Amino acid sequence: MERIAGQFGRVEPRLRARQLLLGLLADLPRKNCWTIAEHTGDATPDGLQHLLGRAKWDADLVRDDLRAFVLEHLADDQAVLVMDETGDLKKGTRTVGVQRQYTGTAGRIENAQVAVYLTYTSRHGHAAIDRALYLPKSWTSDPDRCRQAAVPDDVGFATKPQLARQMIERTLDAGVAAAWAAGDEVYGDNPHLRAALERRQLGYVLAVSSTHRVPTPAGGQRADRLAKKIPKRAWQKLSAGRGAKGHRWYDWAQIAITAPGPAGHQHLLLRRNRRTGELAYYRCYAPRPVPLSTLVKVTGSRWTVEETFQSSKTLAGLDEHQVRRWDSWHRWVTLALLAHAFLAVTAALERRDQTLADDGTSPNGLIPLTCNEIQRLFTALTARPTRDLAHRLRWSTWRRRHQARAQRSHYRRQAALQP
């Protein structure tokens, strides 16, 4: 709160922002202005609704403070900027950006609000540092509808890759140290985004579709057809990173690409599931030569954005807002990301001070503190103490020991199944 206090000209919105952050970090079954106001002792939700809708403060300046906070603790010159979108299911038609559209949250077309997020992923940890609301053409082509939702006049239609590009360029212009970008097919199949990253000399590993055409001396060829020409000896077994149940082992191969554009090294990277044989395809660019293992590591970092979505929604109420207007959405989401960044950074600092075994446990037989566990302790000891300290710490130790036993069991089972 000391970091962002200067963004509020009056003490009242500053205290309301603190109140909202404490509510977002609280152990509530659902988080919105009503439930948080009740939890923090207010008689009505009017104060929090005023903070989100009418109070004078700039959510973009708080976003810049959020980014600086994350960089202060997680900075890494080999960090990856991971871009992805997520949808929040909403009812009605008046909430800004809502329409019937596909969202991976539901896995089908639903009435939803979609936004693109940028996650900073380093060897120390990961947290979201920027956000952009996607406005479909049904909104940008209807000035009256935009006016009712207080959408600024200078906001026009932008595709998801364009929103991701704007966030990446804003991040790099702020002096953020990063070496790579990663994203799924929505971003990898977009040539304008890839070209923009190459101009900034930012390496990337972006998923592409099987029908993606790859430049070759014989002309453009589909990625899936090139995959059929790879000899068996070209495949290598490598881990894409450690997950909750062990290392994510896949077979990998790469094909060098000669493509127009800034100097650098381009490849088509292929990933093969060792059990099903299913293939995935990636366009890669690096300003300097890098080994295959580095590209695989960057590919694995893309899953951190999914972890960020799940954690920020479950623990910080990212998707539980009940606001309809442009400014209100940006204010809620920015404070929710700030609340989640507090948990993510605290967890990263805990891991940084420990030497972990190969199975991810510490010498005392516990897994490191997770965002979930930090939120439980924070709620119990700071936000709303309902039990004595010894009781809460005993339960924390029990949960972490139980999780450590489960994790060791997963690793042993995986080791037994490996050829």
From TrEMBL:
Pfam families: DDE_5 (PF13546). It comes from the Bacteria. This is DDE transposase. Residues 7-239 form the Transposase IS701-like DDE domain.
